[in-house]
Amino acid sequence: MGNILVEIKDLHKSFGEEEVLKGVDLDVERGEVVCIMGPSGAGKSTFLRCINRLEEPDSGTIKIDGEPITGDNVDLNKMRTEIGMVFQQFNLFPHMNALSNITLALKKVKNMSKAEADKKGLENLEKVGLKYKAESKPDQLSGGQKQRVAMARALAMDPKLMLFDEPTSALDPELIEEVVKVMLDLAEMGMTMIAVTHEISFAKGGSDRVCLLDQGNMLEQAPTEKFFNDPEHDRTREFLSMVLD
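Given the sequence above, the corresponding structure tokens read:
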């Protein structure tokens, strides 16, 4: 297996008559940051959601750390503790403060004591620069702060892999930078990440590799600099001409 953490082979997914993923392959090494780009409706979010089986693939295989996570005999709860996911919407419980949103899964899933969970939760709030907001409820936080709490919640489970599904798309432009900064910090720390994003600043500054997913096909996978400066596929050049100033 070597240094490969994520192995995805021939992944297919349809919704009714519509084939959304048409045999997608992707390998991700430990510590690698891979950005998935492409137009709306390309299948990017579906691809990400198949990786932790929020969507059930129709066929193909996904392995995390050499272990198949597709198939009938997979412990989904255990698997999902190893794969953190940050969504477009923050999915925080409105009646709980920031710390409690983070510690709930630590206590319920990892059976930590309150003291252990609180310590872990505060450590992860500190990672995203929000330890001072531990007692604040979501309605007392900005959109960027809510997303950073959601990131801290995912990180607190000590995942092997972090998935980001357009984490800045619901944010006002001035709040995007603070979320991108945390993602760049995680990349620096060596977290293995797959990010669906339109944020060119993160793709250029934080990723090792960028992929273009279009109409359910992975058309291009290249080191970041090559993807932006010397893509091989005409469709990639066309896409970049639309998203780059």
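Residues 173-188 form the longest helix (16 residues). Try to locate this feature in the token string yourself.
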